[in-house]
Amino acid sequence: MAPPAFDYSNGRVVIQHGSIFYSPNCSRPVDIPQEPVHSSDPFRWQRLDVSMFKQPVWWDQNWAWRSFIPLAPSFLFAPFEPLCAMPRIEEVRFSFPAPSGGMVTQIRFRLPEDDIRRWLWAEDLLVKAAYELRLRYSIAGNTPPRPSSFHFDRAHKSHPIAKRMACLARDWFAVWMGYLSFIIAKSENRVAKTAPADPSSAAPDWYSYLLKQPEFDELWLNGLSQSAVCTFDWKTPRAGIIFQWSVNDRDREPIEWYSKHNIPLWFIWSNREEQAIRNNTDLNFLRPPDDLIQEALNILFAAPGLPLAGLIIQKYFTLGDDPITNKTIEFLRLQYAPTFVFEYTAKRFVNQEALLQETEATADARLEVFKVSRDNSIKATAHAASSYPYHGLSATAAPHAALSVQSQGVPATVRETGRNYNEFFAARDKRQQEMIKLESAVDRQRRESREQKPGVVNATLFEWEKTQSSGGLELYKRVKVNKKANETVFHSYRSHQRLFNAFSNEWDLCEDFQFGIVDNTSYSDDGSDSGNDDVYPVNAVSQPTKAPPSAAPMDIDMGQSWCEYSRAPLETMSLVYGYVPHAGVNDIPPTLSWERMLNFMGFVRNLEELDVGEPERSAMMNFFTAVLNAVGTYKSDKVVAKNFENLSLLFQFEHVRRPSEDLFVFSSPKSDSCCWVLGVHSATAALYVCRYILENPMAHTIVTVAHRLLDRGIPFRTLLPLTCSPRQVTITEPYVPRSYRLSDHTFTKADFDVAMLACRSVLSSPQGRAALLQGGIVGRIAREYVSKDGVLGGPSIEVTAHRVGYLVPSGDDNIKFCDDQLTANEVAIICGTYSLHTPYKGQVAVWTWFPPPEVWVHNRTGCHWLDWTERCEDIFQRILTGIHDGTGRPRSTTQWLTHLRGQNISRVLIKHNDVRSQQFMDAMVPIGQ
Q1: Fewer CB near the last or first residue (10 Å), C or N of the chain?
Q2: Angstrom distance (rounded) from CA 242 to CA 523
Q3: Within 10 A of 351 (CB to CB), how many other CB atoms are there?
Q4: Is the pLDDT of residue 99 over 60?
Q5: Per-residue pLDDT tens over the stretch 442-452
Q6: What is the rounded CA–CA span in Å between residue 741 and residue 745?
Q7: For the chain, what percent of residues have pLDDT higher than 70?
């Protein structure tokens, strides 16, 4: 295994217990525990909590699997779907015979029995899978307690106790996810002991082996393979491992193995490691940069009024390394310090001689106070950075929508949500004030009607939940509620926890909201849960005192289209193809009827409603023929060029930047409600933007233009100029098969539902907003989950704080245009991708529920219109209808190309329009402008 290429751009150095620890692949604040003297059971404590196991752990053969515990696992996958919704705690009345005769009745609180059964089912399969694989591959490691050890299956004496135990048990599933992750990762290089691997299968051996067991089916295994259990990338943060690489241990996994699985690595940096690198330059990749070490030392030495560097040097030379007399070794042990650390500390000492004399008498006492304060600060910071709320948890089971994009130090106008929800609403109001200026009379009347009488059933509801980014910053996310559950979810919140937005017909719901008079009524806790109060009484007959509210079904409600495709031929002809209204009829005779022309432009139904009066109708038909004719046809080129000439006189193209061949950037008309600029990747899209701005140049802003592109499904980017290092580039992650089926597998809607759970998980991540920006088929799928505000708020925290996404040079030094970006793996998950294998080794096909984006825009399909047309929506709805009625199946790339094959005239129309648009923009906006 080749050594990893650490660049330390995502690294960190911390100083604890007098030692220097560094990570080449983790920048998260951590609390390094003391190195244990001997191996002991970490689960021996009486009151366990998953937060106790989210910090890096020292390597130990029996407990190294704890380094794989995910910090923020998503439950939006088949094996963990029962955990997505927090069940309602129900009140139960128990009746049982009393010793003195008669019946005694008591009230207890518990999860509904159906939810208990589902949680136990999820637990049993997870435990069974870990047991089978550990046995098959002879993997060492002690087993953690089961989630049911927290007694989620019992009745408790109070509502708060029942809820607390259920939350502890649900969170504990993450520990088992980490345990199984470790076993699966170890199985990759292990030879099975019980039976040989199947060489003809494209699936991993562990997958094929479990599939043969009667307890596991393909749906469960498919969900497991796409979940955090089998996701070993930087977007799945895990606890991490600590060891001293200069000390050999033949049982310890190599550094490369942990790095390959994106486990945060923490090493000791001492003179021993420094000497090892001097003796072997091949180990240079393990040398931490001096600037990271210096940053950690500066933080350590920043104690106000305490010359810590001077005290460390002074006491080292006078008291040595005795921990009883030298209190400074708890901060930094110079005896083991590398050269740079010793020299840098000595330099700080030279400048602190006067302060040393002033503080000499009180030094030990102040060191003790500083140590306590520093230790508390480290623990609190590390706990906050690892306390990720789990994705997919909501008050009721509902499809997830857009994730928020808040970060510290980023202007509020860039954010979707954040620590202060008022900032989100203020930014949204500013954007909507700009859009209201362009409101039609009909839209204004509808908005005012909704303001007077807000609805619930037909509105869009969003629940707000706290989560954290991959870098540990806390933020909110908005979870879109399935409309079937609108009323149930709405009434589960109090009046001060609801906020209605009439412009977009949306409700925002959150337990943290405080709008209006606050209702503080709550359940009371009547004491501790001790003794036998948490168990069912003997011979008890239980009956809920009231029926719990039913949760919304975990289905994909994608048939309710709100896609705003154009039904205006004149608008489409003008904005997409450049027709200038009222320009008169040209001398190119039409070759198609009006209805046929509309068909080739993507219009499908009720074409008689789309008629245009003369002479405009004839002029549009003649212009359509001119665009359709081959590039180089004199008369046609002349007609189109005349319309381009009108545009060149009206629009100020000097305001359009073009940092690269395929990126056009618009920074005007400026908006007061955003900090990003608008980018498009094609000349045709750039001209659409220009023409749309000219429709109302005094009222349009970047935000109103972006809102229009969202409505029409046109791809664009919200580019934020940010300072980046040369090492920070656009993220790439090639497609790797994760879902497997045999070629003769019979697909059902159950397969589709599992695939869409994985899709929802991607779209609920911070970068999920990039799907809506991408337009096309991916954007259409994302419309069902991602809010427009998630896009208009600007790049997510993954970009603003961590510089992970789409990053391209802007033309200015060290400044890059940045936005969110989906990887090939994420796009594959959104489209519902499978690897199908045959009994013949090497023969693997890739099938998808939805056509991949490269197929959708292929020149053979006829779907590559600039905007999302009525025909696009018709195709999309037919795919969904087939899936829901049981006739739809995933298809291969070749099958999708055949299925989507469009009419030749449509393909020619799109091609010729693109070529002429490119020629015009090359002349008006050269590369580098």
Answers
A1: N
A2: 44
A3: 11
A4: yes
A5: 999 999 999 99
A6: 6
A7: 88
